Amino acid sequence: MSIPEIPDVLVPRLREDPPAQQAFPWERSVWEPVVHDVPDAAAALQDLPHRIDRQIVRDVVQANLTRDRVLGALLPMLIWGGTQPRRATSARAILTGVLRRGNFDMPVDDSIRDRLLEGARRVQEDGAAAGFYYMNNEGHVKHLGGAYFTKWLAFTSMTGAIDGPEVAPILDKRVITWIRENTTPSEKLTTERTPSYERYLELLDAWGAPYGRTRTQVELAIFELTRDRPAV
What we know:
- By secondary structure, the chain is an all-alpha fold.
- 54% of the residues lie in helices and 2% in strands.
- It has twelve helices and two strands; from the N terminus they run H-E-H-H-E-H-H-H-H-H-H-H-H-H.
């Protein structure tokens, strides 16, 4: 399948230096109850400043991974994905497997630690597509959909720079919608299938190559073009 031409509006973004995303605040009081019974994650929250950005979250994720504090790595990534109170309930659902009111009192499913750790290992050793396949199949964590587990793959693959060639790019509704609306013929991606993620990687590679940009740098440029859209 041929690659659609790079959207005109994206070209100036790739000619410029990669954008630096601004730090944003988060409410500690909203998130502390989520991890009241998860010591490694509670400790990770204490390491987060009141304003966070991609670099700060990357540093905390990587520091916790090196100490095998898997849930300590997961929670900062979930906070970075959205700070609204409902995100805290969703985060607790990922930890417990239970998506309903009162899940803060449900026990944590410790089996997710091994699946998350294996997903991190696969993306680091075998690449973005392999990490996606695992997290979307045998490594699936209930209530951790593709829009979020690609964030997990992204941060756990940031063993160097936040936008290096080894980093797995994030695929969420913002990016999917933008690509669909700005390609001809329209590219209809999904977070639910590995071939779709592989197609996404092909697009990012093709669009970034003429400008010496990595996949994640192209993803970041697209994200900046979606600022007026609802978050996912």
